[in-house]
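Justification of computing resources. Each target in the renewal requires a structure prediction run like the one illustrated here; the chain below, 165 residues long, is used simply to show the kind of job we budget for.
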Amino acid sequence: MFKAINGKKIITFIICVAIPLAVGWLSTLVTGDIEGVYTSMQQPSFAPPPIVFPIVWSILYTLMGISLYLVVKDGLDKPGVRDAIFYFAVSLVLNFFWTPVFFKWGLILFALVWLVFMIIFAIITAYKFYNINKLAGILWIPYILWLLFALALNIAYYNLNGAVL
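Resulting structure tokens:
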């Protein structure tokens, strides 16, 4: 009934989950005082409190890692896997740089444009993942929804704060 637990798959799972979590952590580390910048800005009425972000991002990065595992668990030679991993990697790179672009360098308008590319690549990644493993693609939906919310926030911050940062 149950398959024996494969040590190699467990290690692969841990690595897959650790990759996006590490990217998020490093982005935060490189950026510096995110909460200080965030609280110093004029806030739109729908802006969440600062504590929401690390919780949500931890969940989203974990879901991204699980989805990556579902795509790679049967091997990199499976059709479409390498292509899907490419889009996943681009999505992570885009994600990594958005935080310093917005919070460290204060480029709110550029961050807005950057976010549009993040959304496009997240949708492509979800589609590519879905074609390999349906659940892997579905697990990207919360990330895409969060990016759309972030886009609304980014627009509001630009309207309220402009190039003040």
